[in-house]
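quick one, two chains, predict together pls
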Amino acid sequence: MLNRIVSYLPGQNISASASGARRRLCLSLAAGAALMPMPARLLAHTASRPRIACIDWAAAESLAWLGHMPVAVPDLAVYRQWLPEPPLPRNTIDLGSRGEPNLELLASLNLDRILVSSWQAGMLPLFLKIAPAEAAVVFDSRREPYANIRLLLIRMGRMTGREHAAHACLAVFDDEMERLRGALDDVAHPSVYIAVLHENGAQAFVYGHGSWVDAVVRRLGLRNAWTARTSFYGNSLIGISELAAVPDAMILYLDQGGRTDRAEALLRDSTLWHSLPAVAAKRVAKIPSFYALGGMASALRCARLVADAALAMRKRAR
Amino acid sequence: MPVTVVRPRTAQAFAFWTVPVLLCLMAVGLTLHALDATAPFSRWGRIVQGQPPDIVQALIFTQVALPRLAMSWLVGAALGLAGLLFQQALRNPLADPATIGVSSGAYLAMAAATLYAPWLLAWSAEAVALAGGIAACALVMAVARRSQFSTINIILAGLIVSLFCGAAAGALTVLNHDYLLSLFIWQTGSLAQNGWQKVSHAWPQFAVLAVCARMLLRPLTLLSLDDARATSLGIHVSRVRAGAIALGVALSAASVAVVGVIGFIGLMAPHFAQMLGARTLGSRMIAAPLLGALLLWTTDQAVQAVGATTGAIPTGSACALIGAPILLWLLFRQRGGLGSRPGAMDAMPLQRALRPRGVLALCGLACAASLVIGLGLGRGLSGWTWLGDTAWETVLDWRLPRVAAAGVAGAMLAMAGALLQRLTGNPLASPEVLGISSGASLGIIVVLLLTATLGTPGMLMAASAGALATLIAVVALNWRSEFSPERLLLAGAALSTLFSACAAFLLTSGDPRAITLLTWMSGSTYRVTAAAIVPGCLVLILGCAGALAGRRWLAIMPLGAASSRALGVHVTFARLYFLLIIAVATASATILVGPLSFVGLLAPHMVRSLGLSRPPAMLAGALLLGSTIMMLADWIGRMVVFPWQIPAGLVAMLVGGPSFLWFLWRSK
């Protein structure tokens, strides 16, 4: 598969676009924390920098974007792979599995606060024995995760005394969305499937209503081609053939390493895959992975990846 | 010992013919209905001619629905033939790729290759599956060899190998969280297709293997005779047997490589063929693959019809759901013996230990040592830590509940196992092997589905009810045969299979509660709080008191029902009394550490081999060793991959499974 997408660094392209003091402030916060892991660690012991462990990755990512690095995160290797920006410092502590983070280790970290995922709310009593703990809500019955991740960023800002930085980051996000939307104004095929290929080569997860991916795609001025039912997390496991339902849509699938490679190997020989209208018309691209259950930084990454893929496709079509 | 086969009379055979005819009609009807839903009849002609009015419809019709149909025929036929080969070569009416462990061996190899050597899969998935299948088969055969390949030993060894592979794959998923779903979908066998390439890749392999099987027809036919007569007719018995098994393994491994694990088709098809009057091996070799194809075809179409309204059901789960009751039915239809008993009473040495007190003291010491290690020795960011440099709260808050839960659960399972072995006179009986743990888990699953949340008392009641119901079912099924050990074990095996099918179905259904179920099923002590241990301790104390109160019965009952009655024991009452204790103890242990561990088998066995045979001493020893094993398993699970953790139940299974095979190998 063609993959001409350049890798992304946080803040890239932003300084080239419109100016703004709050934007620079936010950038310096993010870059500063990433480049100076040691001072961040030293600072963390002072009262002004609460030590926070994030069992939930969206919370960890939001904190990191605000320049307040979480002390510990579960499943760190996969986190770095799926949420590469902003990067966590090298001394971040790995807590083990996301479902069962190591409590004994957590208790030894001298924490001020613990943030868990909303599906772990039943385990809150365990965490409360260690430090004040609360759930970071992204997915709930209202099915508006996009609004929730904006709120989450502001909540993280309040918690760490960086509310102004949170608002600055939101402004960066909105300006960037505006810019990308303008660039995408004349894309010929505005419908898009955002998919993760299943390694059985016969199925794929697609994002739709109830995911923030859907909201991001719409804010880019594109149309999400998947409009049918979705799960609680806003995705749906469908047969490959269902990707033909909107014939003029493009298919963007996430590069999730070995899993995606195996799926591609199976699809290479698949008569069904090659007869999909999008594949036949070469309107299909592999894009670097983003974490669809993450926070605002992941949403920004998603927006840039999708927009760039769409623009690259337009350039090739000409 | 060869198994006598029930040969149906002609009228009966005629009556049986209605079943495949009905199945066939059903399959055709469902298929036409499904295809019509994909694309209306009127458009088929234009789709075939390549001028479809609707491109999507045509794609689904020609690239999804039709290849899936072909795949169900192919795999069904391959499994039917594999089952026939196994049953003929082993003279074992219950053999099939799933029951002798070949499928799960192939699945484990594929899962491990997915994670650690993906290039191997890219090179040849069949070769990987074949290597796993051969390894599992060789293990089972090595264990069963000493008992002259007795039916029961092969099936038991196969069951344990399957459980072990399942546990090992479970441990892999715990450590590789994001692969979880993919591995499960493989395990449950899905026939979903995305074109003709898999079908065109698989059919030549199956065809070559089928031709090879046909070439073995004559020598295989002579295998129906006993070994001596077959040898005198010029057959190299062990070579023919090995060849047939190799072909069976190759067919099953190739099936796993293309669609995943699909059980029981291979078991049912040859029996069906026989009921329909296929007497000679030659006719069965044609009938079994055809019937296998028919069975899988019908199941798959039914699954799709049901799945259209409720969401996708993996075909493999559906097959197990249908197959487990059929295995039970076949079991009770067998009139002949089931081969040698695996270590019946004569294998239970009744010699007294030289110094029971000394042995008990040693057990106590081991228990205390594992308690100290579990509480004291830990790992932190800076390496290993001992009690001195650990905060008191850490030990009290985080280690004590887990160690206590593991210890109490191990003790309860060991008690249940010791009582069961006494009661049935069968040294291989245990709550896990008899399916009682599975019954307890099913109780929890049912309640979990019906209600949103479940407190500890609710869990305990649901699990006890499930365990008791299973126990009563097992006993009732075996009442006539007076607890004939082999039937008891096989009935338990069938129940375990039924349970894992239900659980796998739930796990792939996409229900958010599945995650809770998965972590609980793998036997983790992670969520245990100090409060949750109290009911477990109470049950343990009450159970011990109850068992000790009935110690005279325990000493007498292994002598047999007649002798017990002569000695003034009310046998039925005594049995029910102990069954109740076993059910409640198993249920509360299952709540704490899940259904996987093999402690209930292992601990009483070890105690007996240490020479403790009188009921009170044996019970005490089993309790101590049971809790030792589980506490160590919990500790190992916490330490080995720090900061990650492997559930205690999984660790115990990874140790307990091989130990069971060892006992089985030693028993004659």
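Chain A touches chain B through 52 residues (CB under 8 Å).
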